[in-house]
Design a protein that fits this description.
Order of helices and strands: EHEHEHEHEHEEH
CATH architecture: 3-Layer(aba) Sandwich
Strand content: 15-25%
Strand order of the largest sheet: 3-2-1-4-5-6-7
Bound molecules: glycinamide ribonucleotide
Radius of gyration: 16 Å
Shape: globular
Number of strands: 7
Largest sheet: 7 strands, mixed
Helix content: 25-40%
Number of domains: 1
């Protein structure tokens, strides 16, 4: 299965997907990696692995993902023969026409146990709320913010003395297990096995 990855940051989740492919636990390949941030480390990692990369031109908007840019990205993903789109730390809201181009084929990883703590910096939200446990979620993307059907979740404890950084780091360890497993689950479903 050909994956397309969209990310805005360091790309550790993309790396976890690549590691699972290398280890033979995920039967897929990453066909293209796209970022809205030209300097994002996810692009460097992808280039180092010889993966095609591209920058998403968001027309100067800081947070918006303009419709024309979404159409361009859909075309780029289709040209790379992408079958499943994985958002990995991608910080813009996906809407039509990208959703229409890949119906039920766009996944996202979120650093909380959705529906708790949607939106930005969920690990800080969890600390502020004083919960004893948070986690991470892989879900299908719909037109809402972090609202699509959940595929897999993993719980992560909040420990005494946790800082935002220590908690996010613990969540990321879980994310790196969860994302490849969730992709495999979707793949099996799509292939009817
Ligand atoms: C991950 O923790 C991911 O869950 C989060 O961004 C980080 C990206 O890390 N995504 C969101 O908060 C989306 N709302 P990475 O670039 O190292 O994979």
């Amino acid at each position: 299965m050909v994956l397309g990855v969209l990310g805005s940051g360091s790309g550790s989740n993309m790396q976890a997907i690549l590691d699972a492919i290398d280890a033979g636990t995920l039967d897929a390949r990453i066909g293209i990696v796209l970022s809205d941030q030209p300097g994002a480390f996810i692009l460097t990692r992808a280039r180092q692995c010889g993966i095609e990369t591209g920058v998403i031109d968001c027309r100067g908007f800081r947070t918006k993902f303009p419709d024309e840019a979404q159409a361009e990205i859909a075309a780029r993903l289709q040209a790379a023969k992408v079958e499943l789109v994985c958002l990995a730390g991608f910080m813009r809201l996906v809407k039509r026409p990208l959703l229409d181009a890949f119906p039920d084929r766009i996944l996202n990883i979120h650093p909380a146990l959705l529906p708790a703590f949607p939106g930005l910096e969920s690990w800080k939200q969890a600390l502020a709320a004083g919960v004893a446990e948070t986690g991470c979620t892989v879900h299908f993307v719909d037109a809402g913010m972090d609202t699509g059907p959940i595929i897999l979740q993993e719980r992560v404890p909040v420990l005494p003395g946790d800082t935002p950084e220590s908690l996010h780091a613990r969540i990321q360890v879980a994310e790196h297990r969860l994302y490849p497993a969730a992709i495999t689950r979707v793949q099996m479903h799509l292939q009817g096995t």
